[in-house]
Amino acid sequence: MPQTIGHQAPVADRPVLAIGLANGLVAVVLAALAAHGPMAPTDLDAQRQVDTAILLHFVHTLAIMLLAYWPAPGRWRLTLALAWLVGIILFSGSLYALTLFNQPWPGAITPIGGLFLMLGWIGWLGGLLVVKRPDSD
């Protein structure tokens, strides 16, 4: 957690937390469209794809919000959050386009989005091993 003063709660990295919160809103809207909207997939394969998009969208949204409280330099947190944001847009966004909007072309960029999602996790793990906490020796 970022530094605290006395018994105060940790302070979040506001830009990173804002990215996470905005993503949460978008994830809920798209999940509602996928479940109840006129564009909701009726094909079982399409439903599986949109479920995967929603799951990874929500998981990485929560990871971004958690990242906002990681005690590392702000630039490091923002870089990881942006890697995940790009990953969400390319991975989940391409699956949303495929299933909700019947656009076949985005399927080619889905793996690139997955790569950005993986890079975010690799970056956080690397940062955890490399970045020194302010209160450590």
Automatic annotation (TrEMBL):
Keywords in alphabetical order: Membrane, Transmembrane, Transmembrane helix
Membrane topology: Multi-pass membrane protein
Pfam families, A to Z: DUF423 (PF04241)
Keyword Mitochondrion included in the entry's annotation: no
Localization per record: Membrane
Residues in the signal sequence: none
Presence of keyword Transmembrane: yes
Transmembrane segments: 16-34, 54-72, 79-101, 107-131
Family: Belongs to the UPF0382 family.
Protein name: DUF423 domain-containing protein
Lineage: Bacteria, Pseudomonadati, Pseudomonadota, Gammaproteobacteria, Chromatiales
